[in-house]
Amino acid sequence: MLDLQTAYISRIGRRKRNEDACGYWTSPQGCCWIVSDGAGGHGSGDRAAQIVVSTVLERFSAHPEVSEAHAIGLLEAAQAAVMAEKHANPGGDDMHATAALLLIDAGRREAVWSHVGDTRIYLFRNRELIHQTRDHSLVQSMIDAGYGDAAMIRTHPQRSLLTSAIGNADDLALSVSGAPVAIAPGDAFLICSDGWWEYVDEARMAAELGAGGSATDWLERMAAVVEAHDNHHSDNYTAVAVKAYRAEDEITVLLP
After folding, report:
1. How confident is the model at residue 236 (pLDDT cuts 50, 70, 90)?
2. 7, 55, 169, 246: least buried by Cβ within 10 Å?
3. CATH no. for residue 119?
4. pLDDT (tens digit, 9 = 90+) per residue, 115-127?
């Protein structure tokens, strides 16, 4: 059995409203964390993100299964809920949202994850990055096709254009981790919106994790990097950190 320490930060930046949403639900049977970044005018972006988070947590709490199929099904349910909201308000804005979902079975020490859009999941082990999700974005597609390198993911003027998102009428393209991934004490997950990872690169994420401390400490050090880049274009930024410990380890859980 693993003990799992959770912390989160979600801040408005320089926008009129926070269109990011996040949440989590834990039980001995299974645990779920979700981050969503909404888009759309007149408040519809924050509504889309809230629908994603509430739908995922309601579905998971009713059936806390940690599996590839469930990780896919939860985001498909979120897609259905957002599309139902859009159909109920046909004159509204074209709201949509990204989503990144992490599921962990602490007893089996296994994790699965799924995502759509450019909200990311990172897994660190021994203070080194061992996995990160790949964005569903125009710039990532360009990089994959050989029309640029990884550096442009944070600088290209069209970096926010998505190739898949919840709320799009076209077929939803989801990515999933596949079979459950074994996790160990000391592993750390970071789930974050683009307003976060655009300014905190992967090397800095690992360096701040290596500085030690709680999940809250890790997030606060990275948030300081985001805030150092504050300008009048600053986006909302949200991150959830999950750190794994042996159940017998003595830890102090700090939540904001």
Report:
1. very high
2. 169
3. 3.60.40.10
4. 999 999 999 999 9
